């Protein structure tokens, strides 16, 4: 499988990627726990069918010490006992924020309230930004048909 577009070989795509990566740095430098950041990226990527991002973020999470058990259960987090209440709140917000088109009223107040019980306003801002950002990355890679499987943790710094 070959990608339809090389994000690094095309000048316009590379400039766009530079700016979107800068947004990612703001989030990665935030106080939102790194483990939650990876769970959010994985779950949104699963929902969006982005093989490239699912590959990247499961490998990055494992490299950072996440267990295979938890990684294997992200897609069924509601039925799994291995996630904290804060992680569940973040995953619920991720699903609602990723599936906006499926919910006529947007993100339900109860989902937001649950997240607000576990995260301060800076962490909530990072979580909202992260959900928006990973959905943008997913869409870029799905549209460009970026293949999955070859990512190595840390290959981009």
TrEMBL record:
InterPro entries: AhpD-like, AhpD_core, CMD-like
Domain Carboxymuconolactone decarboxylase-like stretches: 19-95
Annotated GO MF terms: peroxiredoxin activity
Top-level lineage group: Bacteria
Signal peptide: none
NCBIfam families, per database record: ahpD_dom
Protein name: Carboxymuconolactone decarboxylase family protein
């Amino acid at each position: 499988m070959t990608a339809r577009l090389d994000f690094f070989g095309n000048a316009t795509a590379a400039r766009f990627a530079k700016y979107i990566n800068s947004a990612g740095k703001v989030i990665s430098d935030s106080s939102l726990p790194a483990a939650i950041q990876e769970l959010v990226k994985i779950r949104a990527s699963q929902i969006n069918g982005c093989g490239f991002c699912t590959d990247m973020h499961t490998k990055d999470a494992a490299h950072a010490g996440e267990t295979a058990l938890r990684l294997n259960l992200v897609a069924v987090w509601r039925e799994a006992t291995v996630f904290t209440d804060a992680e569940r709140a973040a995953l619920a917000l991720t699903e609602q924020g990723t599936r906006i088109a499926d919910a006529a009223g947007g993100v339900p107040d109860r989902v937001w309230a649950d997240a607000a019980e576990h995260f301060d306003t800076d962490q909530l801002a990072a979580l909202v930004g992260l959900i928006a950002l990973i959905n943008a990355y997913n869409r870029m890679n799905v549209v460009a048909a970026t293949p999955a499987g070859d990512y190595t943790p840390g290959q981009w710094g």
